[in-house]
Amino acid sequence: DIQMTQSPSSVSASVGDRVTITCRASQVISSWLAWFQQKPGQAPKLLIYATSILQSGVPSRFSGSGSGTVFTLTISSLQPEDFATYYCQQANSFPITFGQGTRLEIK
Amino acid sequence: QVQLVQSGSEVKKPGASVEVSCKASGYTFTDYYIHWLRQAPGQGLEWMGWIKPNSGDTNYAQKFQGRVTMTRDTSISTAYMELSRLSSDDTAVYYCARDWNSGDYVGWFDPWGQGTLVTVSS
Q: I need a labelling partner for B87 at 20 to 30 A (CA). Which of A61, A72, A99, B81 fits?
């Protein structure tokens, strides 16, 4: 199975800050990476797929980049509604696997 | 709008089975794969497998092989996931999610159902 490792596991930031979350795959996954946002008590929401393509309706302050085994999710200017847990996910091979999550908290 | 509505919470005893349903609306049910995932309390996300509603073909994660069965009823646009031989480790919120792509599988999940809490306790 492909192991997905996110860093940091948690981060504290303020409204307006720029935040970057990193996801590392245990083997090459090309561009088969997605990012999800999950708020407490809710289902995850697809933010970005194929490494860098923004899902319809997702604000442009979210962006994704990377290739091979290292990927990043960047939020350019944090808004109050962005405080949540973020997961990366690979779809390169079965079984589909997720990172352990990064909790983004208000400083 | 595209929506997946899941069945309600369940409480089961160890060794029992549970079936969770996922009713789709707002799109042609047979055009998109349905995935099943779960999330244990306070934990991350785990993919269990998919079903192709058009044909009934399935693909299960090896971890769940022999214990999970995914089916569908196209007449009512509903997918089902049955998990047998439950243990306390199966206590989790179970989600269905539609594959992002029409026709072929790609492995991005959007949208998701609201989740179904399955509690396994003696």
A: A99
